[in-house]
Amino acid sequence: MNKLVECVPNFSEGKDKGKINQIFNAAKKVKSVKVFELEWDKSHNRSLFTIVGAPEGVFKSVYEAIKVATKLIDMENHVGEHPRVGATDVVPFVPIGGVSMKECVALAKKLGSKVGKELKIPVYLYETAATRPDLVNLAKVRRGQYEGLKGEISKPERKPDFGPSKMHKSAGAMVIGARKYLIAYNVNLDTKDVGVAKKVASKIREKDGGLPAVKAMGFKVDGCAQVSMNLVDYEKTNVDEVYREIEKWAKRYKVGIKNSEIYGMIPLDALVRMAKVTLKAERFKGAQILENRIFE
Amino acid sequence: MNKLVECVPNFSEGKDKGKINQIFNAAKKVKSVKVFELEWDKSHNRSLFTIVGAPEGVFKSVYEAIKVATKLIDMENHVGEHPRVGATDVVPFVPIGGVSMKECVALAKKLGSKVGKELKIPVYLYETAATRPDLVNLAKVRRGQYEGLKGEISKPERKPDFGPSKMHKSAGAMVIGARKYLIAYNVNLDTKDVGVAKKVASKIREKDGGLPAVKAMGFKVDGCAQVSMNLVDYEKTNVDEVYREIEKWAKRYKVGIKNSEIYGMIPLDALVRMAKVTLKAERFKGAQILENRIFE
Fold it and tell me: What residues in B contact A257, CB-CB < 8 Å?
């Protein structure tokens, strides 16, 4: 199987389409990877896109984008609603196929080291790549944001993992890490009563004692009660498992499932796992998919 | 688009790994095709693998394998649970891309003619390649199996399409044809009573009024009652649909499903359809699979 890594770099520029495109196009220079789904938000003053490919290609592609962002974005003049510490704010690597989390952590560290040395930007490792427990959570790494970190970066407890203990004069700091693939998944209930969706959401989400790695909220969307979810680790709870759990809880309120929607992209491995669980086919594997064998 | 044909020859040897490998390696001699997913089953005493490539390459590759199987397998000493009439039992050609069903039928006839002439093995054409209505169905072609066909092959109604009207002394007969993509799928029941598997099989198979494009039989495999199926058109009945139907019928005999097994390869499209149905996610499409975006 081909080695596949996803990277979703976030940049502190969400207004100037010219600059946003320059950063996006820099990533596209590496022809061996796919770069897509450019998104930007003016009030957040932030943009992001997705790079997918073999580890080396993704590494080169995101580094090209970081170099351009470092030149174009000045954090001294940046205003936006979203928390941020630098021009290239967050860079997560995500294992997609044929790659372990360990390899993504190694990739994060390699990128952090290069950014620290060559661009003189302080780098913090977060999530699975974190080297200290207080840096696992992204919100904690970014506390005080660009302005606050500037005054605290010389303190021992805020020492970066790579680069100088001093903010880059215009690009600030950077957070690089590795995390699991996130699936955005919505289930629409056969009722207009948003209260049912809210109750079901509270039953299934991890923080209220529900399924592991499930974040859920109840909304009313197009007149329909919707359980809107982020599955932050489909190896713990996959789309089919959460579907059946919602079905079970909704039944207690005499409500059925109208339909469901996978929002955006899903890794093939999640479908393979779904087949394994739904069909109790423990031995089923991705290599049994015809297309995987022909184009390998 | 490149012309792609799949061929899945089935051989009556599922125990002797040395012989199985010799047959597999013969097919691999043709370097222009992919030969993979060798599987074998001791109680069925049967093995199969997949060849994919351009029509000419696939033709050469499968013929090499047939030649070796003809030398190595003696049907006079063959015992196994799966119906069979010969050493190389069944050879289907399946259009995958850029090739019509008609081209696959022509390929089947060309192979049948060569096997009849050069190896002196009687050959029956089946499914889309069949020349008589009573030979379309594989089960009908194989009725009586090796032992039964031996006594009947000289009768006009059992005259083969190619080769002598007489069984090959050790290799028996062969069935060659063209068909749609077939998913081999087994569901193991939580009982040792093969009678339940046989009853469930009779409820779900098309010929007895069950699900369309489903062929099913009940076996005892590794001490477990198994519903063994061929899904001959997954666009009509897919793995998840037949799983739920079996679950429903087995319940009437107070039996559950132990596990299931997709045997060999499955097209990605079948998994996408499974997600759509199981999750009521009508709008889900293959383009949402990350890997598909990369190799498009």
Answer: 280
Q: Judge whether A261 is closer than 8 Å to chain B, CB to CB.
A: yes
Cβ-defined contact of B280 to A257 (cutoff 8 Å): yes
Q: Answer for the pair A103, A95: CB distance below 8 angstroms, yes or no.
A: yes
Does 3.30.70.670 match the CATH number of domain B183-264?
A: yes
Q: Which of A267, A271, A295 comes nearest B271 by C-beta?
A: A271
Which residue from A240, A267, A294 is facing B290, i.e. has the nearest CB?
Answer: A267
Q: Which of A271, A281, A283 is facing B275, going by the closest CB pair?
A: A271
The CATH code belonging to domain A183-290 is: 3.30.70.670
Render each residue's pLDDT in chain A as its tens digit; 296 residues.
579 999 999 999 999 999 999 999 999 999 999 999 899 999 999 999 999 999 999 999 999 999 999 999 999 999 998 899 999 999 999 998 889 999 999 999 999 999 999 999 999 999 999 999 999 999 899 999 999 999 999 999 999 999 999 999 999 999 999 999 999 999 999 999 999 999 999 999 999 999 999 999 999 988 899 999 999 999 999 999 999 999 999 999 999 999 999 988 899 999 999 999 999 999 999 988 887 766 54
Residue spans per domain, chain A: 4-178, 183-290
ipTM of the complex: 0.78
The answer regarding whether domain A4-178 maps to CATH 3.30.990.10 reads yes
For residue B137, how many C-alpha atoms fall within 13 Å in the half-sphere facing its CB? 10
CB A214 within 8 A of CB A229: yes
Residue of chain A nearest B264, judged by CA positions: A288
* Assessment of whether the complete model's pTM goes beyond 0.80: no
Report d(CA A245, CA A236) in Å as an integer.
Answer: 14
Chain A CB within 8 Å of residue B259 CB: yes
What Cα–Cα distance (Å) separates residue B292 from each residue in A53, A154, B159, B284?
12, 46, 47, 13
DSSP conformation class of B78:
-
Determine contact: B221 vs chain A, CB below 8 A.
no
Asked if A82 is an active-site residue, the reply is yes
